[in-house]
Design brief:
formyl-coa transferase, domain 3; Rossmann fold; 418 residues; 11 strands; disordered N terminus; single chain
């Protein structure tokens, strides 16, 4: 059964009334009208589809009956749901289907008729065993975009290796760049692999495939590897290997960049600030403010002079509080900024002006605060202010829309398929 692009067009969803910054919102979200069947669990898939939902896409979480996304029930919970699940599943829909059962498989195939994207977060081979892999679905719906995101991609000797964020960081060599040490690597708090190597790459791949479909009328399979995504981040550092005079590994370039003019310093009140005076003009301003004029032409010194310069800067910054230094550098531009906690940043004037915090009224969890989508569009409201869906909330309505009768839906429920 072949589909046309017209089968995928749906009525555009009206945007909320206010856009970021308070401007009137008279345009729909950019992805309004696109439907995504989300088969992923935990972090990378949820972050990806949350971003797509924030941009207007209709995201339908396809979850296991009685269990759902593992994060739904993980501690600590706000009330009923884990806080992590609530942070990344705003405004989505939920349907429960047992894809191992023929009836569940048939129901999923029926849902694909109205979908634009299927997002598979299983290990390679799982969807093929279910008969729901990209080849099988494209044979029925050639306009479908199928995104498969996994730790190491759909092929290669590591394709089936079980791993999580920290594993990917370690296996790609990124870990020491993230935590600042090649000799004593340690776990990181921010899941950079799941977010940057996986979710953001999947967003780019999905959007590129949708654009291509508009041009060609055909869908495509997108293969996203979290490890590949992380490795692409290292291209800036590994480019030095093209310089014959430098060793491929073990050179100073393998360490995090930390020079006196590009570092973190403690202030007189025990707080910290960041100095990013990389360009000569910023370095000159910094030297002027700190009365270190004789160091202006020695920004890149090494060895004992570098240590002397770092010592001078450290001592200088301890003579005033963080607030005092911020007042000084508010009129002397030298790329000197405070080190803030995330809460301080979100409570600050910049985040407030950008509308970076959303307030969600959840009927079960109460009032929830979440970080808004970072991408702003003119005359479009910040998206997804609806709460997370209870497990399977839209099961009946979505199956009914897909052509299943009330009797068929009841039979599937009795059989435990939904």
């Amino acid at each position: 059964m072949e589909m046309t692009l017209e089968d995928h067009s749906r009525k555009q969803v009206a945007a909320p009334t206010l856009a970021a910054g308070g401007a009137a919102a008279n345009k729909p979200q950019p992805l309004a009208g696109f439907r995504i069947l989300d088969l992923t669990r935990l972090l990378p898939g949820a972050y990806c589809t949350q971003m797509l939902a924030d941009m207007g896409a209709e995201v339908i979480k396809v979850e296991q009956p009685g269990v759902g996304d593992y994060w739904r029930w993980m501690e600590p919970k706000v009330k009923r749901h884990g806080y992590q699940f609530l942070a990344l599943n705003r405004g989505k829909k939920s349907i429960t289907l047992d894809l191992k059962r023929p009836e569940g498989r048939d129901a999923f195939i029926a849902l694909c008729k109205s979908a634009d994207v299927v997002f598979d977060g299983f290990r390679p081979g799982v969807m093929k065993r279910l008969g729901l892999d990209s080849d099988s679905l494209h044979a029925i719906y050639p306009t479908l975009v199928y995104c498969a995101m996994s730790g190491f991609g759909q092929d290669g000797p590591d394709a089936l290796v079980a791993a999580h964020d920290l594993n990917y960081q370690g296996m790609t060599g990124i870990l020491h760049y993230v935590n600042g040490s090649t000799n004593a690597p340690h776990a990181t708090a921010l899941p950079v692999a799941d977010l940057g190597g996986g979710a953001l790459m999947a967003i780019a791949g999905i959007l590129a495939a949708l654009i291509e479909r508009e041009r060609t009328g055909k869908g495509r399979t997108v293969d996203v590897s979290v490890a590949d995504g992380l490795l692409s981040w290292a291209s800036f550092m590994t480019s030095k290997w093209n310089v014959a005079a430098l060793p491929q590994e073990g050179s100073p370039f393998d360490e995090p960049f930390d020079k006196p003019f590009y570092s973190v310093y403690e202030t007189g009140d025990g707080r910290h600030l960041v100095v990013g005076a990389y360009e000569p003009k910023f370095w000159k301003t910094l030297c002027d403010v700190l009365s270190l004029d004789h160091w202006v032409d020695r920004q890149w010194v090494e060895g004992p002079q570098e240590q002397e310069l770092r010592h001078l800067l450290a001592n200088a910054f301890k003579t005033k509080t963080l607030a005092e230094w911020m007042e000084i550098f508010s009129t002397s531009e030298a790329c000197v900024t405070p080190v803030l906690s995330v809460k301080e940043a979100l409570d600050g004037p910049q985040a407030r002006a950008r509308g970076s915090v959303l307030t969600i009224q959840d009927p079960v969890e109460g009032e929830l605060k979440h970080i808004a989508c970072p991408i702003r569009f003119d005359s479009v409201a910040l998206g997804c202010v609806e709460p997370c869906p209870p497990l399977g909330r839209e099961t009946d309505s979505l199956l009914s829309d897909a052509g299943f009768s009330d009797q068929a839906i009841a039979a599937m429920r009795d059989a435990g398929v939904i």
